[in-house]
Design brief:
Strands 2-3-1-4-5 form a five-stranded parallel beta sheet. The chain has nine helices and five strands, in the order βαβαααβαβαααβα. By secondary structure, it is α/β, with parallel strands linked by helices. It is globular and about 40 Å long. Bound molecules: BIS(adenosine)-5'-tetraphosphate. The site of BIS(adenosine)-5'-tetraphosphate (B4P) has 28 residues, from helix 1, helix 2, helix 3, helix 6 and helix 9. Catalyzes the reversible transfer of the terminal phosphate group between ATP and AMP. Plays an important role in cellular energy homeostasis and in adenine nucleotide metabolism. Its EC number is 2.7.4.3.
């Protein structure tokens, strides 16, 4: 089973590369960002709470996203593998994911980190904001806040996977196909 974590700051291209990996390897896509936006669209109480935080560029509580991932793992027993996109975003989430996977006799094979500088991230997200309708993509100050949250809470997750020998960093700037080729080489390496 191929279980991957796709990692990187907001706008690094995790969603973009996930779509290509799913097509090539038939993996189940678990994006906590997409799951939270679905809750917001459905108007659930969880979605209403999450929206308040997401609209400020702040991470939602660990317990909320861990619970969502647990449900999805249980719903997809027998899958060819999972791609975790935008999760884990804190060390507590990474530890919880390992525990959940162990309960299913599974583990993460690679943690692939897309490295992109702040200037490029801001450009990409403002560009996406013109069409995505996402409030968190339409304001430069909010984008800066998301990148700051990433630096403070999420970047340490890289060390967690490095200590397990699973961290693989790649340059996330360049042609989408070329970046995808680098990811495939890691997987098939
Ligand atoms: P997410 O939905 O995870 O989204 P993201 O980080 O904004 O984007 P991603 O990296 O997937 O970028 P994409 O491929 O789309 O998070 C949103 C919010 O949800 C968070 O701020 C947080 O509040 C909350 N949240 C989510 N998960 C959480 C968790 N686990 N714990 C707590 N809170 C959580 O690419 C962006 C743009 O760049 C696109 O327009 C794309 O076309 C473009 N692009 C991609 N690759 C490119 C390339 N190589 N060159 C040029 N442009 C490229």
């Amino acid at each position: 089973m191929l279980n991957l974590v796709l990692f990187g700051p907001p706008g690094a291209g995790k969603g973009t590369q996930s779509a290509k990996l799913i097509e090539k390897y038939g993996l189940i896509h678990l994006s906590t960002g997409d799951l939270l936006r679905a809750e917001i669209t459905a108007g659930t109480s969880l979605g209403l709470e999450a929206k308040k935080l997401m609209d400020q560029g702040i991470l939602v509580p660990d317990s909320v996203v861990i619970g969502m991932i647990e449900n999805k793992l249980n719903e997809n027993k027998g899958a060819a593998g999972f791609i975790f996109d935008g999760f884990p975003r804190t060390v507590a989430q990474a530890e919880a994911l390992d525990t959940l996977l162990e309960g299913h006799q599974l583990s993460i094979k690679h943690m692939i980190s897309l490295e992109v500088n702040q200037e490029e991230l801001t450009q990409r997200l403002l560009e996406r904001g013109k069409t995505s309708g996402r409030p968190d993509d339409q304001n430069e100050e909010l984008i800066r806040k998301r990148v700051q949250e990433y630096g403070e809470k999420t970047a340490p997750v890289a060390g967690y996977y490095a200590s397990q020998g699973k961290f693989q960093g790649i340059n996330g700037i360049g042609e989408i196909e070329e970046i995808f080729g680098q990811i495939v080489r890691i997987i098939e390496g």
